[in-house]
Amino acid sequence: MLLNLINSLELVTLVPILAGSVFSVLTVATVKRFFKGSRRDPQSGTPQNFTPPVTVLKPVRGLEKNLKHNLRTIATQDYPDYQVIYSVQDPQDPAYLIIKDIQAEFGRDRISVVISRVEAGANGKVNNLLGAMEAACHDIIIISDSDTRLRSDYIATIVEPLANPEVGCVCTPFKVTKADSWYEKMELLTMNADFMPSVMFAEVTGASNSCLGPSIAIRRSTLDKLGGLESLADYLVEDYEIGRRVWTSGQKMVLLPYMIDVVVDLASWKNWWSHQVYWDQNTYLARPGAFISTILIRSIPFALIFAVLRWDLIGLEVLMATILIRIITAAMVAQEMGDKETIKSLYLLPFRDAVGLVFWGLAFTQRTVIWRGVEFKLTSHGKMVKHRLLEN
What we know:
By secondary structure, the protein is an alpha/beta fold. It has 14 helices and 13 strands. The chain has helices at 2-35, 67-72, 95-106, 124-133, 154-159, 182-205, 220-225, 238-248, 269-286, 288-293, 299-310, 313-336, 340-344, 349-365; strands spanning 54-59, 82-88, 111-115, 140-144, 148-149, 167-171, 174-177, 215-219, 252-255, 260-263, 368-371, 374-378, 384-389. The model is unreliable at 38-46 (pLDDT under 50).
């Protein structure tokens, strides 16, 4: 009876091994196609040199790796008319002096600094954005995270699809960079070798829509029609909620074939662990069906289970072949993304994929998340409430 059970388990593990390996090969093709142009082709027929005035919202909290350099990249854009608003919620925030220095460098005509203690809900990023929104001068709004490092053509690129009145919102994919420690490299692999290829696969095949929070462009008038930022203040995944409201309203949600950099900054392996759980909880709450189905493409952890169950040469060969396919295809995807850091970190990918199955399981069991030292309880429909402030 035990032997029959083991044989059955071996057969079960072959499903994600094979499906995951096939999926890895397919992502190479879909990522290549994605960068040749999105399937929606949102810019066709729109006017050239579309350069309306733009307001960029940069919510900031605390010191982060390369913070000043990251924040300055939005102030050096090759764009004729734009306003940048850096916002903090506490004048004692150590980042406040940095953004004041940037304001002194580029002038108050371009750079605004807002201090606001708005607390409309549990989502700290949305609260920070609400303070900044009050000072916004223009209808087109770009929401750009503080850890993003942007090229000088960023504003011109992300704004252009909005020339089409059918486009409601635009976002860009991203790749994690500047990973120094092993756990920062693990974070990098999660995003660059797992999440982003899956997003591009879904975009090219039409499997699902995406709205990626680090970089969003939307008309203020559109945002107001969708309920405004205030209505997002209790959502854990506010970026996905923006996108969901856009595409259910009948407007187009555009994911541009244009990569930006996000600088990773984790203080310890514990921060990495909690962030991985937080990320999988985000994904589960945003798309429960899609998240659950990822169990079918997790090839490496199930190849490891297969090898342990068989404990013979065949099991070892299956494991090694699965790892080889995963690493080679991840390297090819990274090359398409111009991502040399991921290629250098691929030796950690089997371990990252194996531990990823643990995070997947924890997403169903844990009902709290930690964001910047505050613990929140998850409630229904992707919302959250503040639970307690954690000690440093």
